Amino acid sequence: METKLQVALDITELNTALEIAEQTVKGGVDWIEAGTPLIKSSGLKAVQQLKQKHPDKKIIADMKTMDTGSLEVEIASKKGADIISILGTAADQTIKDAVQKSNEYGTQIMTDLINTKNPVQRAKQLKNLGTDIILVHTGIDQQMAGANPLDTLKEITNNITNTQIAVAGGLNKQTAKQAAKTADIIIVGGAITRSSNIQKSTREIKKAIKNTKQTTKQTTKQKQTTKQKIQEITTCNLADALNRKGIIPIQQVSGEKTFGRALTVKTMNGDWSKPVQAIDKAQKGDIIVIDASKGNLAVWGELATKSAINNNINGVIINGGIRDIKEIKKLKYPAWATHTTPAAGEPKGNGEIGTEIQIGPTTIKTGDYILADQNGAIAIKKQKINYAINKAKLIKENEDRVRSQIQQGKTLSKAIELKKWENQQR
Ligand SMILES: O=C([C@H](O)CO)[C@H](O)[C@H](O)COP(=O)(O)O
């Protein structure tokens, strides 16, 4: 992922903050943060107005939540925040509740390590709690005492893999360039918002952080490895790895293998309103997973498919009906369903986007990972993805060994020493 530049609007006057945001967008900023001082002075309408003016930008609500994680994530998500910051020193339950609520809204959680006594240990805990981004942060007051985030950033990026790392704390063009060698998101406040030419300083910092990622950075290699592993494994390997947990009882209708994060939709038989609205809510690379109570009326068809392709959505899984099969197959779009039918229902608007759903024996939450291919589909809990993929990869490698023995003439029972297995199963 290209390193992102996030401007922190630590401004107390809303109109000034909006003007500065405008300038940073012209300068090429990627993400826009409603800073804590802005939220405390103007309220969450600051988030709302930033989202209304810049719908194509990720908007961060720097809430620095310490308690009532679910409530604060809900109010910020409803105002349009894409990412909400929670203090890493908050209770684990607060963070779990925040993650749970963010999954429902399809938003993300950034946990802030500001003033954390043992940042590496806490960062590992935060990753296991499901946080999406870990922020290495030297607060303004700590900066006044001469501190900066770069040393802690090095410790964190050497110990935390497969989680986006952000960094903030008095960064300027030079230190931002340094930080960008390992961090995924560079957060800059004063060096942009207090500069005499906001657009120019934004552009200069954006240029400084571009293409600086260390090629040897473990998470980049790790992410590429994860991506490679996904390409090599099948849902069969994954089913074995997960002891048959996470299976979604569904048949492939079109397309090839697909992988991505779930955006869940609950609807009724034939009610295609929420499924279609989900196309607008889904992030690039998501898979829309629809529970239509295994109904026999279609909640998806050719037009929804073409709209999903436009929004870079990786596929659709429907516990219910789909139609326009010929057209969807022609588009080679990854689609799974329980029924194909010529008949669609009505867009009544029943149900909810982002809520937890159950298909057969499997509960699926927004943010869970989905791997689906010709065999079917499997949901993987966010916290288990690395374990699941690594174990499935090992199973695949064992199978490859048996495959080569069979190619050399051994029978399957000999290649897997079946007799020994039988004894073990008794
Ligand atoms: O989070 C921040 C600070 O705690 C005030 O809310 C700042 O947004 C963050 O430190 C980035 O601002 P600069 O340090 O001025 O770059």
TrEMBL record:
GO terms for molecular function: 3-dehydro-L-gulonate-6-phosphate decarboxylase activity; hexulose-6-phosphate synthase activity; methyltransferase activity; orotidine-5'-phosphate decarboxylase activity. The keyword Methyltransferase applies. Gene3D superfamilies: Aldolase class I, Ribonuclease E inhibitor RraA/RraA-like. Its EC number is 4.1.2.43. The keyword Zinc-finger does not apply. Pfam families: OMPdecase, RraA-like. Signal peptide: none annotated. It catalyses: D-ribulose 5-phosphate + formaldehyde = D-arabino-hex-3-ulose 6-phosphate. Belongs to the HPS/KGPDC family. HPS subfamily. NCBIfam families: RuMP_HxlA. This is 3-hexulose-6-phosphate synthase. It comes from Methanonatronarchaeum thermophilum. The lineage of its organism: Archaea, Methanobacteriati, Methanobacteriota, Methanonatronarchaeia, Methanonatronarchaeales.
